[in-house]
Fold this protein.
Amino acid sequence: MNDTPWENFLIAARGGMPSRPPVALIVDSPWMPGHANMHTLDFFLYPDRWLAAHLALTERFPDAVFLPGFWVEYGMANEPTAFGAPVMWRADAPPAMRHVNLPPEAWADLPRPDPHTDGMMPLVLRRLANLEGGELPEPHRIRIVAARGPLALATHVLGTTPFLEATATEPDAVEAALDIFTDTVIAFLRAQLDCLREPVGVLVLDDIPGMLSPRAFNRVALPFLNRIFGAFDGLLRIYHNDTPCAHLLPHLSALEMDVFNFSHEMPLAEVKDALGPEIALLGNVAPLDLLVRGTPEQVEAAARDCIAQAGDGRGFILSAGGGVSPGTPAENIDALIRATT
């Protein structure tokens, strides 16, 4: 081992104790265009500018790992567009989704999309194939692929309020819809992995389970998330959910995940105690109040507190309590990294 940031990340992600706490941040289109001083639509439209922005990021922060790494995404639109959800493109923010007005009795008849032909997923796959085919310069690699989880996908397609209400009133319709959405997530992740030369893991992002009661989580979220994680046994499985969900801590250890990225509102030490040593933690500095609005000194102090709460450092990766928020200054990421030295 050469003690690189990536190698330290993998050691911690697999439950080990690296030589220093790794720093890994989830970065995508809410933050990247602003950081690169780009118009958001140009970030999506011009692959060469998109790649230059990502390469500049790795050069600016050589001691950090960015997850999933060279993420090919169109905001939330990758998967929902395969179900006919319209996209609203914006100049200063990632594209937003308009949900499809379907009554619960029609959810069982949702299509089962093919990631190679439907929505914006084929564009993602083609971009990945081109990057892995030579556009991404050596020694860079894309090792982790990403998708929204089944409940997040459900809310983008069907609407948050209709879907959450249906979890209590229309359980059969919810199960039928989640069966389709789960299969879509698995197919999309597999298709992305097939594009990679050196696949290592998957990142599943789904905040909606945090809005459920423990009983509803066990019935509605747990089996479908575990179907996804079970499909990728042997790969690194990272789960992002930054909705405050301390009420679910007794149940989250049942998820077949390897790494958990969670809300800064959940004390790291409590999450560590609840989940045990089998699940690595990715967190937990406040992304908005500190990484955007705080001073570098405040960020460094909070980061050191996270490191202290992590105990001996086994299975711990320093990060934000969620993704990197729009407006995060580079100096505060420097402070995060400085806290690990």
Notes: The two ends are 19 Å apart (CA to CA). The first strand starts at residue 24 and ends at 26. The chain is about 40% helix and 10% strand.
